[in-house]
Design a protein that fits this description.
By secondary structure, the chain is an alpha/beta fold. The protein has one domain: Acetylglutamate kinase-like (Carbamate kinase), CATH 3.40.1160. The chain is 36% helix and 19% strand. The protein is built from 7 helices and 11 strands. The protein has a 9-stranded mixed beta sheet, with helices on both faces.
C-alpha cells in the first residue's frame, strides 16, 4: 500500500462490530481490526476512530419510563469509553501506539480531547480513539464521528458496517435490494437513507466531508478501501462527470 487513497481518516465503528456472538468483545474480531488498522498506520495513514457502545448498552433500548434519556445517553457514552479502552489495548498488542481522548477526562482510561492535543499525536503516527461521544446527551456516535472528522480535517469519514454499502432497502431481507455506488448528501437526506443520522450527514455536508460506507465484517476491507480497491458507497456533494 505505497500510495494510499487517503492520508488521514476518521473510522466509525459500531459497538456491535466488536462483539462476537454472546460476547461483547470478540477476540478474533478485535485482533483482526487491530491488525488491519496497524497495517494502515505502518503505511503512513493517520487514523482517528470513533466507536459506538451498542455491544454494551443502547440508550434507545433502555426503559426510558424509568431511566431518563439524559441518564441513558450518559451511560451509553461510558460504554463507548470502555470499548475505546479495549480497542486501544488490542492496538498496543500489535505494536501500534494508541490513546483514548474524550470530551471529559476519565483517568486512567482517557485524556481530555482538544484539537491542539490531537493533531500532533496524529502526525506522529499515533492512533486516536475518540470515546465518550460528543460529551452531550441527545447526540449519537455518528454525530461524534462527523464532529471529530471535521475537527481533525480528515480526508474522509469511513463508516464500517456489516454490508458493503448503502442500499435502497435492507439487503438482508430483500434479495432484490440495489446498492448505490454514489449518493449526494441531499439524496441521503431527502430519501432518509440509513447512512448515518441526519445531524451527522448535515454536518458532513456543511463541511464538505465525504462519507464512505463499506463492509468492515472482514477487517481487510479497511485496507482495500484505503487503497481505493473497494468502492463501497461514497456520499459527497455532487456526482463526478
Amino acid at each position: 500500500m505505497s500510495h494510499p487513497r487517503f492520508s488521514r481518516i476518521l473510522l466509525k465503528l459500531s459497538g456491535e462490530g466488536l462483539a462476537d456472538g454472546a460476547s461483547p468483545f470478540g477476540h478474533e474480531r478485535l485482533t483482526g481490526l487491530a491488525q488491519a488498522i496497524s497495517r494502515a498506520v505502518s503505511e503512513g495513514v493517520e487514523i482517528g476512530i470513533v466507536v459506538g457502545g451498542g455491544n454494551l448498552f443502547r440508550a434507545r433500548s433502555a426503559n426510558l419510563d424509568v431511566l431518563g434519556r439524559v441518564t441513558a445517553d450518559n451511560v451509553g457514552m461510558l460504554a463507548t469509553l470502555m470499548n475505546a479502552a479495549v480497542l486501544r489495548d488490542y492496538l498496543r498488542a500489535e505494536g501500534t501506539n494508541a490513546m483514548v481522548l474524550s470530551p471529559h477526562e476519565v483517568p486512567p482510561l482517557s485524556q481530555t480531547f482538544t484539537r491542539d492535543r490531537a493533531m500532533p499525536q496524529l502526525k506522529a503516527g499515533r492512533v486516536l480513539i475518540f470515546g465518550g461521544g460528543t460529551g452531550n446527551p441527545f447526540f449519537t456516535t455518528d454525530s461524534a464521528a462527523a464532529l471529530r472528522a471535521a475537527e481533525i480535517q480528515a480526508d474522509v469519514l469511513l463508516k464500517g458496517t456489516q454490508v458493503d454499502g448503502v442500499y435502497d432497502k435492507d439487503p438482508h431481507v430483500h434479495p432484490d435490494a440495489v446498492r448505490f455506488p454514489f449518493l449526494t448528501y441531499d439524496e441521503v437526506i431527502d430519501r432518509r437513507l440509513q447512512v448515518m443520522d441526519l445531524t451527522a450527514v448535515t454536518l458532513c455536508a456543511e463541511q464538505g466531508m465525504p462519507i464512505l460506507v463499506f463492509d468492515i465484517s472482514d477487517p481487510e476491507n479497511l485496507l482495500r478501501v484505503i487503497r481505493g480497491e473497494d468502492a463501497g458507497t461514497l456520499v459527497a456533494k455532487e456526482r463526478k462527470p
